[in-house]
Amino acid sequence: MGRLKEKVALVTGGASGIGLGICEAFVREGAHVILTDIIKTGPGHKAKINCQSGGSISYQDLDVTNEGQWGKVISYTRRKFGQLDILVNNAGIASRRGLQEGSVDDWITTFDVNAKGAYLGIKYAVQLMEKVGKGSIVNISSISALIGGGGSVDYRASKGATRLLTKSMALILASQNIRVNGIYPGDIITPLNEEYLKDQNVLNDRISLVPLGRLGTKEDVAQLAIFLASDEASYITGAEMVVDGGRTAY
Ligand SMILES: NC(=O)c1ccc[n+]([C@@H]2O[C@H](COP(=O)([O-])OP(=O)(O)OC[C@H]3O[C@@H](n4cnc5c(N)ncnc54)[C@H](O)[C@@H]3O)[C@@H](O)[C@H]2O)c1
Q1: Has residue 64 been placed in a domain?
Q2: In this structure, which of 109, 162, 173, 236 has its CB flanked by the most CB atoms within 10 Å?
Q3: Segments forming the whole domain that contains residue 50
């Protein structure tokens, strides 16, 4: 408890799944969290996040592909807190489209949310982090950015783009003491894939790929996000950290 005390954190796609898990965990660790999403009435907005730790939660509408909305959310953060210590670029959309199944529009939409969204987040968050003289940016990528696979062509490529965005920004922002790291989850059970995993055969198949013998939870990812966001990780930047039960260790 208290590993993020007094820190201000902005989380994108925070109304569901991994993003919601990160918001809950950050507040538990004492952070003031700005939960942002395109969902206005989603589970995150109804969630009663426990603020006994001294942390707090506030909600802002943010479509990560919309530059104007980024400007508004950063202005809100400046007015309300005067600082920003942590950005988690978590918002993402998945696809299971192969080469001939997807259209160019699908490709553009996936890249807009998964890659452009993270780029805009960094561009705007840095304006506030520079004032503090340090910061931590955590990009939620995917093991799909590290290993090839049959379907999800646009998803894999967009997450791969985020991987090198992470590394390049880590180099560019190091002199300002702003750290940029990537988290690469394996299969984590969230609303993103629960429909797909309802099929017992698919579920068993996915579990069989994981040396630790289970799929991940939002808490598994949140624990790593806490570490990377905190001062405990002050010498870590440009890193790619998998949280996948050993799936990519082969
Ligand atoms: N679940 C997994 O197995 C898994 C594995 C690897 C990586 N990831 C990544 O983790 C992140 C979170 O995924 P999840 O599983 O929690 O999914 P989820 O669908 O439960 O949550 C994603 C959230 O992003 C929001 N979102 C979508 N488009 C947005 C936009 N344009 N602007 C702002 N918010 C938007 C959604 O409203 C939703 O609340 C994604 O980037 C995903 O690619 C997930």
Answers
A1: yes
A2: 162
A3: 8-242
CATH, residue 138: 3.40.50.720
Ligand 1 atom closest to 65 (CA) = 31
Cβ < 6 A, ligand 1 pocket = 12-13, 15-19, 37-39, 42, 62-65, 90-94, 113, 140, 142, 185, 187-188, 190-193
Q: If you measure from the C-alpha of residue 147 to the centroid of ligand 1, how many angstroms do you get, rounded to a whole number?
A: 19
Does a structural domain hold residue 249?
no
pLDDT digits (tens, 9 = 90+) for 174-183: 999 999 999 9
Q: Is 155 a catalytic residue?
A: yes
What is the number of domains present in the chain? 1
Single out the residue of 122, 147, 153, 138 nearest to residue 240, CA to CA: 138
Full-model pTM: 0.97
Beta strands in the chain (DSSP E): 8-11, 32-37, 56-61, 86-89, 135-140, 178-185, 240-243
Are 63 and 69 in contact by the 8 Å Cβ rule? The answer is yes
